[in-house]
Design goal:
Elements: E1 5-7, E2 14-22, E3 28-37, E4 73-74, E5 81-83, E6 89-92, E7 100-104, E8 115-127, E9 134-138, E10 151-153, E11 156-163, E12 167-176, E13 179-188, E14 194-205, E15 217-221, E16 224-227, H1 240-243, E17 246-251, E18 261-264, E19 267-271, E20 280-284, E21 290-296, E22 301-304, E23 317-319, E24 323-335, H2 339-350, E25 359-360
Parallel strand pairs: 17-19
Antiparallel strand pairs: 1-2, 2-3, 4-10, 5-6, 6-7, 7-8, 8-9, 8-14, 10-11, 11-12, 12-13, 13-24, 14-23, 15-16, 15-20, 17-22, 18-19, 20-21, 21-24, 24-25
Length: 367
């Protein structure tokens, strides 16, 4: 690293280019390599770190034109929630001003935090013709920032927000019978073309799903399921302070990094030697009765921060002036089914998630 630059600090987890910020307050400058930046540590701090793989291509996500549900209630109350026929709840977390959702299992108290989702964790753009990237939104816990105006309709919770860079975002979460579909509609109101726009959800698993040694977190390869961390068996015997903090990554469309293990800024990054064959990651509950699985249409890689047991399958898009793009991810929350059954469910639904491309902007209210 040059003496007059620092790696930009961020909170949470996600994949992004390496950013360098000059000590004199200069611009944010990514290098040519993908990085994985850390999730929140126990003290809520993280540093941006590098991943050794190069961006192969930025997949485009098509805008799916759908009917916007009729919202019969407008409220700013953060305690609003929706419920499906099985008794699963989707609710706004009250302790954070910035958007955080909880998926509450049937029979659990509304305060249960076993599945908590930052919605989003961050929004990142990179203008065309520039190597600079910037976060136009970054989640902060607690009473930071302005609370959005939440709308509720049947099983949907949503809000809209204007972001820096003249980007308008509609964020919608819909509770379905088998989990939650997360939908971002991003409108470029500027005269700039963004070669990259990312709106990242961050599902964090605690309680019965917490898996800090990745003993119950799986990915799918061409020959079937394997533990995400299957190539690091000694993690089970390491003292926890030696194993953590860590990030474990498996490529999907991105090239597999040549360096399998890297230690950067005190964080150990493990890159799996085999690519996954689907943008899918799943975690079993401690008793094996529940499966939580995240999937999307396409992504560069899947990964987890075991300290948070977060699941990342982050889609991305390109966005021209006056256009909109959609990014969608679904989290399955299923009881009494095998991993194979849950994987089949995800693959059947995968095509229903939006992919690539953009269309000329219309009012978000028209959709």
């Amino acid at each position: 690293m040059e003496e007059n630059s620092t790696v930009k600090s961020v909170q949470g987890g996600g994949q992004w280019r390496e950013l360098r910020v000059s000590s004199s307050g200069g611009g944010v400058k990514p290098t040519s390599r993908i990085i994985g930046y850390t999730g929140l540590r126990s003290r809520g701090k993280a540093m941006l770190t590098r991943n050794s793989s190069a961006i192969f291509a930025i997949p485009l996500l098509l805008v799916a034109l759908g009917c916007r549900p009729a919202f019969d209630q407008v409220t700013a109350a953060p305690s609003e929630s929706v419920r499906n026929s099985a008794g699963m709840q989707l609710k706004v977390a009250e302790e954070n001003t910035q958007p955080t959702l909880r998926i509450v299992l049937p029979g659990r108290p509304a305060s249960d935090r076993a599945i908590e989702v930052l919605f989003p964790e961050h929004v990142t753009v990179r203008p065309r013709g520039s190597t600079d990237g910037s976060q136009i939104y970054l989640f902060q816990p607690g009473r930071s920032g302005e609370r959005p105006l939440w709308r509720r309709s049947e099983r949907t919770l949503e809000y809209e927000r204007n972001l820096p860079g003249a980007v308008h975002m509609l964020a919608r979460a819909t509770l379905e019978e088998d989990g939650v579909r997360f939908h971002f509609r991003l409108r470029n109101q500027s005269d700039k073309t963004y070669d990259l726009i990312w709106a990242i959800i961050d599902p964090r698993l605690t309680s019965v799903f917490h898996d800090d040694r990745l003993e119950r977190t799986y990915v799918h390869h061409a020959d079937g399921f394997a533990l995400l961390a299957s190539e690091t068996p000694n993690r089970l015997k390491m003292p926890l302070h030696e194993w953590l903090p860590a990030r474990y990554l498996a490529s999907f469309t991105w090239p597999i990094p040549s360096q399998r293990v890297e230690s950067r800024d005190g964080i150990t990054h493990y890159n799996k030697s085999r690519a996954v064959d689907a943008p899918f990651i799943a975690t079993l509950s401690q008793d094996g009765r529940w499966v939580v699985a995240s999937f999307t249409r396409t992504t560069g890689n899947v990964w987890s921060n075991p300290e948070l047991t977060c699941q990342h399958v982050d889609p991305q898009a390109a966005l021209s002036p006056g256009e909109e793009a959609i990014l969608e991810t679904k989290i399955l929350v299923v009881r009494g089914s095998s991993l194979n059954d849950v994987f089949e469910m995800a693959m059947k639904q995968r095509a229903s998630l939006s992919e690539s491309g953009a269309v000329r902007s219309r009012s978000l209210r028209e959709k």
